[in-house]
């Protein structure tokens, strides 16, 4: 009972945040909307007995990535005139809704054909950090290693891309 | 009461809003955030099915997806800085050097 | 009877042509070759051909055989085989005799005429090639081989008329000759095809056609005979395809003498005689041929009375005499027609060569009034010219009288009084214009006499030999009423010619009538031109002097029309319609492609949107497919 109400509330927050992100002109407001969505999704993870993921979501997504976005936004010192003019925003959104409808109908219909199951919160260590860690290091080791390399590359890459160039300005023009 | 379909509905809504955001908005930040929203929608779906089938592999996949999203954020934002430096605008429609039409 | 010699009559001049051509190439590329070598090859090979012919002729007279020679099977398609073989029967050897003899004499004449010319070797190469082609024509065993020779003489005529190709008019004249001949050749070819179709035999030789001719329906034979005669019209310069002959005088005089007097133009007459088995059965076509001949003779004679160029007068005179020959063969008197061919070859070649001698002596002056103004002392030429003029006018006992009289008597006997009347009037005109020519050039009083005269033995020797022929050849067919043996008629019995059988008194009266007519022509010419004031030449105005404007008429109707048609097809059909259509299709494709290419507008959101559209379609399809 309680879970249902929490679920509905969290869902409304998530979707509202998403729509706010979509519609707003200023990117700061969009970022805030997205932040709300991230937090709501984290709550939904918790409802699904994925406690480790709930924490990872908050820490990484809401804490690191959104912070980075907000940081860059303010770093670039965006003024009103830098923002692009978007005259046909709502008509394009309407068109997008139309285009995305078939996928939704298909997936939801497919999912509704699956057998019913109870999705209450599970006790024990289903989504706990220890079982997830064990699964990660036992079955998904290679992926784990590759991800670490990827993170290294991203680190180096972002520095290389964003550093101040030497006086040859045309290099940045490409 | 809460069934698989409800979670599926929520995650598909988020995913769709992400897709619409990529097509409909010109602001590069909004496009990026829509991409992140798409990823989030999918992770929600993954976790739902992890709980549904009582299998932890989906949760591990979700961890990996989040890690990739982090790496992507770093690169993406660096490129946004580069583009903003060269064109002084956040409009994605002004990059037309690869066009085949009138102005090349 | 088979003999290996027959083909050498043809091969000798052909090899001469090839040798001369080879030497000429060497002459212009590497090192000069002396004229003597060209002359020796050029005159030696026709002499060889004549000697072989003479040998075969004597053998035929002795033993009464016919010679054939089969080289190889040329075409073998289904049931039809065409052999490359030659036939030396009486008719062929008769033609070949005078063709090689007169040809040999004219080759000798050409040595003197073309002396000092740069293209000396080339001339003799072409000349020998012409002789070889003419001999192929004459000795052919079937109409296809005849056609090879027919075309060959046409080509050589073109090459030789346009010999001085630096002058554009000569080239135009050469083209005119070739194209007019082409029209005739087309008719000839259609005629052969029709004949083949009508007869339906398995081989096309003359003997096979003759044997199977009863298979054919009369209509097809009439058509075939008419079409074959169209070829003769072109080659022998009868109305309406005669327009090339006067212009062909642009070539050097030796070729006017040989080709356009003695040999090529008589190919049409020979062809009709060769197809005698065909023409005997279709008398209407024969009558048509006779009428064409009569009108051509009259037409040409009228025009010749007002011409001022010496060679053009002789050209029209040739056309006129050819008309006589066609009167004869059209009415079925093949041997009489061929006898006139024989005598005409002698005196016409002689007249042309005499004219050439005068032209050379006076440095290429061709207008008769100017020639008279600078008259030169050329006794031998004067004498032979007079002989030729008397012969062509038909004064006995010169040869022209016997041959022409035979033709007129034939017309009278067949009841064709219109043709007879035209023939008599044309004889009057012939005497008139030939003596006009003679009087103006040699007799009318002139003030200055030219001193620088060039003539040589090579020019005068052939003239003298031919004059003997012009005088004496008549006796070869001396009519029976005078006690002669009519040897030519006897020789050509294979042709089943009609013979003259009238009462003696009628024959005497007709002969007297033709003599009176000829003398009347001479007297009228004497009265008008013997004391003519050559310093006031006749005007060039008037219909007759302008050749009845036939050339202009043809030009408007045929040449301008085809030019307009070609221009129309080029500019409108080719450029606008065909090119336009193709280019429009191309341009439509290109512009369509350009329109499609605007999709690539480097707008990433646009690409993403399109991908989404595609995916939506797939999802809809999947939904329907899965039947959810």
Automatic annotation (TrEMBL), chain B:
Its EC number is 7.1.1.-. Its main location: membrane. One of its GO terms (biological process) is ATP synthesis coupled electron transport. It catalyses: a quinone + NADH + 5 H(+)(in) = a quinol + NAD(+) + 4 H(+)(out). GO terms for molecular function: NADH dehydrogenase (quinone) (non-electrogenic) activity; quinone binding. GO terms for cellular component: NADH dehydrogenase complex; plasma membrane. The chain crosses the membrane at residues 6-25, 37-54, 60-84. It holds the Pfam family Oxidored_q2. It is a multi-pass membrane protein. It is an enzyme of class 7 (translocase). It is found in: Cell membrane; Membrane. Keywords: Cell membrane, Membrane, NAD, Quinone, Translocase, Transmembrane, Transmembrane helix, Transport, Ubiquinone. NDH-1 shuttles electrons from NADH, via FMN and iron-sulfur (Fe-S) centers, to quinones in the respiratory chain. The immediate electron acceptor for the enzyme in this species is believed to be ubiquinone. Couples the redox reaction to proton translocation (for every two electrons transferred, four hydrogen ions are translocated across the cytoplasmic membrane), and thus conserves the redox energy in a proton gradient. PANTHER family: NADH-UBIQUINONE OXIDOREDUCTASE CHAIN 4L (PTHR11434:SF16), NADH-UBIQUINONE OXIDOREDUCTASE SUBUNIT ND4L (PTHR11434). Belongs to the complex I subunit 4L family. NDH-1 is composed of 14 different subunits. Subunits NuoA, H, J, K, L, M, N constitute the membrane sector of the complex. This is NADH-quinone oxidoreductase subunit K. It comes from Malaciobacter marinus.
